[in-house]
Amino acid sequence: MSEKQQVVPTVGVVVVAAGSGQRLGLGIPKARVLCAGRTLLEHSLDAVIAAGIASHVVVVLPQDDAVLSSVVAAAGRSGGAAVTAVPGGSTRTDSVRAGLDALPASIAVVLVHDAARALTPPDVFRRVAAAVAAGAPAVIPVLPVVDTVKVVDGDVVTATPDRGGLRAVQTPQGFDAVTLRAAHAAVGAAGPTVTDDAMLMEAHGATVRVVDGDALAFKVTTPLDLVIAEAVLARVPVDATSLPHVAG
Length: 248
Ligand code: CTP
Ligand code: MG
Known about the structure:
Layout: E1 11-16, E2 34-35, E3 38-39, H1 40-51, E4 56-61, H2 66-77, E5 82-87, H3 92-102, E6 109-114, H4 122-133, E7 138-144, E8 151-153, E9 156-159, E10 167-169, E11 173-176, H5 177-187, H6 197-203, E12 208-212, H7 223-234
Parallel strand pairs: 1-4, 1-6, 4-5, 7-12
Antiparallel strand pairs: 2-3, 6-11, 7-10, 7-11, 8-9
Helix pairs in contact: 1-2, 1-4, 5-6
């Protein structure tokens, strides 16, 4: 092998889809909610497959969900990657761990992705995977924070962090597989305050790097988010050449 040839690591993706969708409030698991006629999980898996980076995809599902199980089976038939399903746990961290346990030990790079970020462009997966393959043990996609953020104690503001140093964090988050498994093992049974895997890596002493996220990787959390996702999928592509020219 010449020096210029790079070893491409094997990439696995864990898609966590086992949440109940309380804030959406539709009484069914969020991954099963329809958006433009297809489940959020179908939209998410389309992007994972289209990214073309993964040899294995493990989808973490609510217990005994026949609809979502058949979505996973169909994604597996599309070729490109081996796609399997495992049941999730009571917290997101437990669900990620179940997915990690189901990935082959040979996987070198793991991307962990929220099924609820159903419109994430395939480029975000490629960007994150490339940064991990280039040597970063943990990589997260981020966006600048547009609102001013306050720290409060009850109903009293106690501080205003400098917005310039803050970032809003998305998924997919990418990790060196060995380090992520070790970080999960070290934390034991994590409480609900662990909201992403990068937190576990930080606690484990690993450097976490950021790459550009994408507005379309927003998490469908509330009913308004679902309206926005429907509108995005229904939009007519804008032809920039037909827009009136704005000087300056
Ligand atoms: N998730 C999971 N297992 C859990 C909790 C969450 O796999 N026990 C997944 C969700 O399916 C989702 C992602 O983690 O894709 C982010 O979680 P969130 O947006 O909070 O989804 P839900 O927990 O379903 O929503 P809510 O908190 O409103 O109930
Ligand atoms: Mg939740």
